Amino acid sequence: MAFFLRRFMPARFRNDGPTIPVLRLAGTIGIGSPFRPGISMEGLAVPIRAAFAVKDAPAVALVINSPGGAATQSHLIFKRLRALADEKEKKLLAFIEDVGASGGYMIALAADEIFADPASIVGSIGVVSGGFGFDRAIERLGIERRLYSAGERKVMLDPFSPENPRDVEHLRDIQRDIHALFIDLVRSRRGERLKETPETFSGMVWSGPKAKEAGLIDGIGDVRSELRARYGDKVKLKPVTAERGLFRRRKAVGVSAGLAAAQVDAILGAIEERALWGRFGL
Questions:
Q1: Is-contact 120 114, C-beta < 8 A?
Q2: Do residues 84 and 53 touch, judged by C-beta distance below 8 A?
Q3: pTM for this entry
Q4: Domain shared by 179 and 75, yes or no
Q5: pLDDT tens readout for residues 9-47
Q6: Maximum Cα–Cα distance for the chain, whole Å?
Q7: Are 204 and 124 in contact (CB under 8 A)?
Q8: Based on the structure, what is the number of domains in the chain?
Q9: Does residue 243 lie within any of the structural domains?
């Protein structure tokens, strides 16, 4: 009878281990389509709030598997995680799986401690932009480009027009600003743990053990093993996930949206996402 009644007692009166919310972030950041949504602050707002709302949890675990993506979304998620960790006075622990690179690593910086697997890929502290130039191709095909704008820089870096060195330099200025923000975040969050070298902010990536030597992470381990080591074998891991059902996707697309257009959008998003993962051999 005592065993039966024990399940109805408040957790603080039971001799059980603590419950640790586990928030998983997997995929590219910001890049996606209605049918292939990427990681974004909008999609994570509710699960992040739910994770930190678990009253008796001494910590929140963040599991990351991302090659990066949009810098703004990465920074917004970083700020929200750090703000709630401070507000709720909970320790935030990040665990990198396959990849925690670029924006994925920026999000991990919100944590008090970062862990990775020996085979994880960590780092890529830099900024990249990519595209294609089709101006010669359409010329050979006899296609005339017609483009009208108000504002001489409105069509900057148009892929169907010849590249303008002035536009390229402006893009590089933007990249340098974002890179400087990223560098400041790494230095402020990692502090004395960071073993800075000329390659630290070059965009280089490292394996888990090398990232630990460089001070980019704190240890080698996975979420279950580390939480058991800290909080005992009775610790409970509570997954907190974002809503990812058909209803949410249909709502995002809209009732009148054409399926063909949505499929094309999904294909283009998948190509861009595949290119990001491919940079790390995955």
A1: no
A2: no
A3: 0.79
A4: no
A5: 555 555 578 999 999 999 999 866 555 568 999 999 999
A6: 85
A7: yes
A8: 2
A9: yes
